[in-house]
Automatic annotation (TrEMBL):
This is Uncharacterized protein. It comes from the Bacteria. The chain crosses the membrane at residues 13-36. Keywords: Membrane, Transmembrane, Transmembrane helix.
Length: 60
C-alpha cells in the first residue's frame, strides 16, 4: 500500500515537472507508459519507454 502511494506521489511530481519543461506531452505519455509497464509487469514496455524517454531527455 505504501509503495503504491509512493509511486503515485513520484508520478505526480514527475508529471508536474514535465508539464513545465520543454518535453511536455510526449514526456508525460512516456512516463505514463513506464509506470504502466512497471505496474502491469511488462518489462519490454517499461524499458522501451524508458529508453525513448532518455533519448528525448538527451536532446532537450
Amino acid at each position: 500500500m505504501i509503495q503504491s502511494e509512493g509511486l503515485v506521489a513520484a508520478a505526480e511530481f514527475v508529471l508536474s515537472m514535465l508539464a513545465q519543461s520543454k518535453i511536455g506531452l510526449l514526456g508525460a505519455i512516456l512516463m505514463a507508459l513506464i509506470f504502466a509497464g512497471i505496474r502491469m509487469n511488462h518489462t519490454r514496455l517499461a524499458v522501451g519507454a524508458a529508453v525513448v524517454f532518455a533519448i528525448l531527455m538527451s536532446q532537450a
